[in-house]
Design brief:
Length: 205
């Protein structure tokens, strides 16, 4: 029942978003997408079929995002990309927002953090964010090697902006990836993400 209600919620949210063609639902094929990275290269989710993929919704202006980069999210990125996992950081902040960073600015910020995602992608129109019903930063997703959405929700179990809480929390991304890499189902497949609301471009924009 909980899974059906979750699917209904994100389906209704996507129906109301003009740019969303297909709603992302845990257990179902993840919506494919094509975005440009901060270096101008086109990246498609379908390019990584056969690999586990993490989608990280990112906004450097958000204290919850800064918390996790100050707390060494970079190590998590490096740990799993070294195991063949693809990590895509996606920024859906509209260009009229004070939090918006141009591709060079976002690339510079990620470099300053010594971040290690596979790619940093620009989604200024919000098309991909709305298709995945990404609501906050960081909102985290895992797409399994079969191309199905295996996890959607919070990065960890303590919804605070305090770096000191990281070590006490259960990291759902690490847990889910370790389970998938061990050939097991993800034990916590969905939960409520926490963070800063994504500044989407309005339908009239």
């Amino acid at each position: 029942m909980q899974r059906r209600l979750f699917a209904l919620t994100i389906a209704l949210a996507a129906f109301g978003a003009h740019t969303a063609v297909l709603a992302a639902t845990v257990g179902q094929p993840a919506p494919d997408f094509s975005l440009t990275d901060v270096n101008g290269k086109t990246v498609r989710l379908s390019d990584f079929k056969g690999k586990h993929v993490v989608l990280e919704w990112n906004n450097p202006g958000c204290p919850f995002v800064r918390k996790h980069y100050q707390g060494n999210l970079q190590a998590l990125q490096k740990e799993f990309t070294a195991k063949g996992v693809v990590w895509l950081a996606i920024n859906s902040t509209e260009d009229a927002s004070a939090d918006y960073k141009t591709p060079p600015q976002l690339a510079r910020w990620m470099a300053e953090q010594k971040a290690a995602p596979t790619a940093v992608l620009m989604d200024e129109e919000g098309t991909v964010g709305k298709a995945y019903n990404a609501r906050v930063t960081p909102h985290m997703y895992i797409v399994n090697a079969q191309g199905r959405l295996a996890f959607a929700g919070a990065i960890d179990s303590i919804p605070s902006a305090r770096v000191s809480d990281i070590d006490k929390a259960t990291n759902f991304v690490r847990q889910g990836l370790n389970e998938l890499l061990a050939g097991k189902p993800v034990s916590v497949a969905q939960n409520q993400a926490y963070g800063c609301s994504i500044k989407y471009k309005s339908a009239a924009g």
